[in-house]
Amino acid sequence: MSNPVATIDPLEAAHFGKLAAEWWDPKGSSAMLHRLNPVRLSYIRARLNQAWDLDPRTRRPLAGKRVLDVGCGAGLLSEPLARLGAEVTGIDAAPENIVVARAHAAEQGLEIDYRSGEVEQLSGERFDLVVSMEVIEHVADPAGFITALANALADDGVLILSTPNRTPLSRLALITIGEGFGMVPRGTHDHDKFLTPDELTTLLDKPGFQVIDTTGLSFDPRTGFVLSPTLTLNYLLTARRR
Questions:
Q1: How many domains, the chain?
Q2: What is the pLDDT of residue 123?
Q3: Coil, helix or strand at residue 125
Q4: 11, 98, 148, 242: which could join 116 in a potential S-S bond, CB 3.0 to 4.6 Å?
Q5: What are the respective helix, strand and coil percentages of the chain, to the nearest 5?
Q6: CATH number of the structural domain spanning residue 25
Q7: Which residues of the chain have pLDDT under 70?
């Protein structure tokens, strides 16, 4: 059997590795991710409540579930998923991020299996939930990346992704304003690599996924990031096998 094709873009991994020390600083280079995290978690919890008929009042609804966080950074999403009871594995292309993630989890008393590398390395492992937030727009081969995520997902599992839409608004908000005014590190985004919902749905269709929900992520000046029916800036997507 041939080895799977790597989807990591080394330049992207190096870019995010340089930011490792500031991942957990809510006022540092990852400040935008800190603001996004509560909205992401709200979406994930709602989709899993529906998919698995979970009790929304339960504090540890993911007990007994294996979760894979692909492109986990220093663990901003992995840690709250672990607190919801999941057995979490986090994988990231930048080894610097994994060093920070392990140290922070240890400080919090959380047991999370952090690994440095690419999702293609998880040969034979299967997870009930696979999440990958703001990652696919940074990989070298989006179609290969989706295939690798599919290979890591249990047959009855849930896949949740988020990514910017390729629109004039996303260019303005994320690059012209976000990077131009220092709210996001320069060089973080390449607008040409953003995927529209239709393009991502097509990529998911090939390995046999059905998209069951697509929800927009918008910015409200009064309240910050909010879930929205408008997909023009950013969106979250949930898929399951047909």
A1: 1
A2: 82
A3: coil
A4: 98
A5: 40, 25, 35
A6: 3.40.50.150
A7: 1-6, 12-13, 17
